[in-house]
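Posting this for the archive.
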Amino acid sequence: MKKTENDTLQQIKKITIIGMGVNIFLTIIKIAAGYFGKSQAVLADGVHSLSDLSTDIAIIIGANYWTAPADASHPHGHRRIETAVSIFIGLILVLVAAGISYNSVNSLIAKEGASPDIIAFYAALISIFLKEAIYQITLHIGKKIKSSALIANAWHHRTDALSSLPAAAAVLAAIIKPEWWFIDAFGALLISIFIMQASIKIIWPAFNELTDKGAPKSVYTEIENLCQSVEGVNSCHKCRTRKLGAGWQIDIHIQVKRNLTVTEGHKISGNVKHLLLEKGPDIIDAIIHIEPEEDRE
């Protein structure tokens, strides 16, 4: 494994292990506070933190594979594993949201509930501050190394922080007005909506990547401008792109003068590829096809 790839792996593992420690701590205090403090919202929030542990483990294991270099059996690398991990994180969130909403609705229908204790409120507050901090750090590193799975996990942390807000508000309202016990159940239901929204934001981009959705128009424009800036390139067309982990894999046709030698044409295509990899919009691989001008189809 190259040094840069090993550095990336170490950064992913370091921040994820820190996040895992925070999740273990919050899972214990929120589930305990929710149970003994009689708060559905905080208990649901604790289950959400528990789901974070599964995604942390998935990232630590998956990072060992998606950062591995290309080999004979995987000539394009292993970046699709990162995409799969992102989808896994999103699906875990869907299941958590469904479970929380189911329990909340059942509680409201049965009209069963109790006024929560102040300990549940304190647990929610602790969660808000810790999870927002770990979200900011994880997102910063994820963007720095361009890891979609790490960014997805950062948003998982953010949903935990956001879900603790209605949990804290619901608990406080139910404590002030014990006859409003149902607010706690509504708080848990609101948390499930937050979680479901976050899951969609994670799954949809990963799904597009898995189905080879092309780059935005701005990326195509930048690629074509770079190609046409290379000496010897008359025009370019048939540009195709697909997302592969942190960057884009592209192939494009360039037109050159008809009377060039194979060596001259090869040199021009090499210059185009070098420029795209060096200055292109997160391009990790480029295949350049040479065509003589006037033979464009």
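Residues 217-292 form a domain with the Alpha-Beta Plaits fold (CATH 3.30.70.1350). The beta strands are 235-244, 247-256, 283-292.
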